Amino acid sequence: xxxxxxxxxxxxxxxxxxxxxxxxxxxxxxxxxxxxxxxxxxxxxxxxxxxxxxxxxxxxxxxxxxxxxxxxxxxxxxxxxxxxxxxxxxxxxxxxxxxxxxxxxxxxxxxxxxxxxxxxxxxxxxxxxxxxxxxxxxxxxxxxxxxxxxxxxxx
Length: 155
Fold this sequence. Notes:
By secondary structure, this protein is of the alpha+beta class. It contains 2 helices and 3 strands. It has a 3-stranded antiparallel sheet. The longest helix is centred in the N-terminal third of the chain and has 43 residues, at 14-56.
């Protein structure tokens, strides 16, 4: 009885290794991109929260804008996010006053895929919005368009 070994059951050699490397590299790029989007979202969330906190606890509209922006840039700087990459849509200071609604929206574009020697292939925009009421129990100078009847305290 002769036992010859055929090629039945043979596993691909080099092709299988190359395919596995391709899957590994692609998976690594996807995970890295997902992590960068989550990191930017977390940074913008903290920055928006601090902006609103500084804005709503100020004594006048000018100080509100200044305090909000200082808090925002402090958080972004601490997180390592360049302030020039973040777009800020802040509340209107002319309606600043007790119980006025203050909303800030921050957005930043994150590269969806950054390849070596090629650069950015696509991008994703991360947008965060926070809303809070201006402190009702603080003495303050109100904005020129402030209407106390249109605030949450009047309802």
